[in-house]
Amino acid sequence: MVKHRRFGLALGSGGARGSAHVGVLKVLEENGIVPDVIAGTSMGAEVGGAYAAGASIDDIAAVWRETSPARFIRAILPTVPWSGWSAGKEVPRTVQRLVGNPQIEDLGMPFAAVATDLSTGLPHPITSGPLCLAIRASVSIPGLFTPVWLDGHLLIDGGVSDPLPVDIARRLGADVVAAVDVLVDPQEVKLSGIPALDYRDRILGIAKGLRASETGNGASHRFHPSVFTVLFQMSTVFQKRVSDLLLEVHPPDVLIRPDFGLDPPSYGDVKDGIEAGEAAARRALPQIKALLSLE
Length: 295
Hints:
about 300 residues; alpha/beta; eight-stranded mixed beta sheet; two-stranded parallel sheet; 14 strands; globular
């Protein structure tokens, strides 16, 4: 008799790209594959937590599709504390609309929402207590949402320390782990800013827009990016580097990387993100089935 191998999902952080997690879960479910454990970071915790609590794929997808730019803005309205721009109250409300507010230990499967302990800098997997609070802690993007105090720990976004929690999924008891990586690659970001005119333009007082400057790699346009662009790209580089290094230390059995193409999903339009997750999951199905001895 073939022993059942416990299948775990590690759902990574990635903002609106986390909609791809919905597509991955949909394809797995259509093929009779239900995870035994789920570990999620940030948006991966939100989608994975709702699924572990019994929300249907259709309901989770509907919540994502209902998200509009106006609704996203309401979710990040300013709050009083200086430790973050917003209290992020809309995050637990969204989860509550789907599944209420169950205790993690009462879910149908082992689940962990991964946050980061601000005092130690280490990953802090939350495996018990109120699900909504755990998810709120896991999505506490530094500077955007205020940190969360939980069981004596001051917690921020799990993507800071463990963007793709393969190690946590194995700790929950998974024998086979499929990891869904939806992080932005720094090279995908189209940087822009105020044109930086070269010396000849300044001497002549002629603003000709972006001028090609000769470099060792050929012509390139020079510009001064805004501070927000610099900080966003810094975060993108940091998370990607941390994730890639952790993947070397804790490699998954299956790595699923959705292809978002030239028009990645936004909070106002997640349809393509869900479809990208579906396509990536279908590509990974033969490998997953073989590892689980399903074919």
